Amino acid sequence: MPQKTFKHMNRIIVAGIGPGSPDDITPAVQAALREADVVVGYKYYFRFIEPFLRDDCQCIDTGMRRERDRAAQALQLAATGRRVVVISSGDAGIYGMAPLIYEMGKKEGAEDIQIEVLPGISAFQKAGALLGAPLGHDVCLISLSDLMTPWALIERRIRAAAAGDFVTAIYNPRSHERYWQLYRLRELMLQEGRSEQTPVGYVRQAGRNEQQVVVTTLGALCIEDIDMFTVVIIGNSQTYVADGKMITPRGYYRQPESADEENCPPTTGQQIMMESFRRIESELKTPNLPLGHKWALLHAIHTTADFDMERILRTDNGAVEAIFNKVKDGALRTIVTDVTMVVSGIRKGALARLGIEAKCFLHDPRVAEMARQEGITRTQAGIRLAVEEHPQALFAFGNAPTALMELCHLMRQGKAQPAGIIAAPVGFVHVEESKHMVKPFTSVPKIIVEGRKGGSNLAATLCNAILCFDDAELLQPGRDV
């Protein structure tokens, strides 16, 4: 393939030389460097282009933060007919010399000098490749340098990137003088709803001998390890880590990963549910919630359209995770409910997938007779029968406070050892008291809807949240819809 020859009379070539490795310098830039009479740039970058320069090529360094002097000198040299190449690391059009050369050319009245820009591999592209595939969806680039941009404007852009769920690449993240800005960026990201578990990667000295590649999370990011030679990439809500690599799916509804999933792609209903969860998450007043609690809360709000759930939904620490682990370990095989409406709302696909049975004893023939003889409600009688047969079930209450109170009495007597309790009875009589009664059982993981609110639909959706908890990290609800 013939090499491109560049016309040099009254022309400046502005070239991106990539992040540092000779292998990352494009053939077009290599050809321009071989023909250059003069290369203008920052001296630190000359070492990366030496193999491509003629022995008589002059390298001119104008020093750090002297970009305008560099541009003016390049224009003066080009006006004499010399072949001038101005170099920038990465891509010359991304935080590089290209826009300044155009601006200065107009200012200096150098209309007779043609300007040609040769793209290079940007640092964020090189970093992305080293980290895996974090740039698979919409990407935003933000520089934390406030030398030419007011910090207030940078903050607005950080908030917008977080709110828009962009994968975000950070340039100029930290220096000796600017030591606090990256801390502030993390604070803003978390305030705008980005999870502490969001995958984050950073690459220091990309493509150079000192190269370092680290994958971590937004919460665990060690900011003191970051410097001006580092590019930081913050994932979006769909980014995940597999085999140490960051991956951002091309869309918000990930493609099937197996033949079984290929046969059961996401349904329209599931896609709508995913989008609903994203909207709910963006409107939460307290974004940085433990994953299990947030997952249960999103289900509760999705079912009720009631953002008061953010105030009244209580989960014991790690309750959702603890109950789900019992499902995975095979220790939990039965869900007992107070009324049949709760059973109806639990997804049959999830029950079948996990090998779990959901039961309500309310219509068992024994219940009416027990209720009559004992002078108790039918729901109380149903719970007594359920405890006799399934003392270690997950118990879900969405209607009857007396049924929840009965379970508390049976636990006090040592007759029931539930795998977990969902306490969401609804009403005005004994409702709040029943929920207070269950709280002292600290060894039992509980999800409680405080106050008078609750309902069968709410109890059912909290069961569903537990059964599909393995979809929580990627915010992909509705697998069994």
Explain this structure:
Helices cover 39% and strands 17% of the residues. The chain has 19 helices and 19 strands. Strand 12 and strand 13 form a beta hairpin. Helix 6 runs parallel beside helix 7 and helix 17 (401-412) packs parallel to helix 18 (431-438). The protein starts with 10 loop residues before the first strand and ends in a 14-residue tail after the last helix. The model is unreliable at 254-266 (pLDDT under 50).
End-to-end Cα distance, whole Å, is 56 Å
Strand content: 15-25%
Low-confidence stretches: 254-266
Helicity, as a percent range: 25-40%
Mean pLDDT: 91
Quick take:
The protein is 39% helix and 17% strand.
Write the layout of secondary structure elements.
Blueprint lengths: L10 E6 L10 H9 L2 E4 L4 H4 L8 E4 L5 H13 L4 E5 L9 H10 L6 E5 L4 H9 E2 L5 E5 L7 H13 L3 E5 L9 H11 L7 E6 L7 E6 L12 E5 L5 E3 L2 E3 L11 H5 L4 H16 L7 H14 L4 H4 E3 L3 H11 L4 E4 L2 H6 L2 H7 L2 E4 L4 H10 L3 H12 L4 E4 L3 H12 L7 E4 L7 H8 L7 E4 L6 H12 L14
Parallel strand pairs: 1-4, 1-5, 2-3, 2-4, 6-13, 7-8, 15-16, 15-17, 17-18, 18-19
Antiparallel strand pairs: 8-11, 9-10, 9-11, 12-13, 14-19
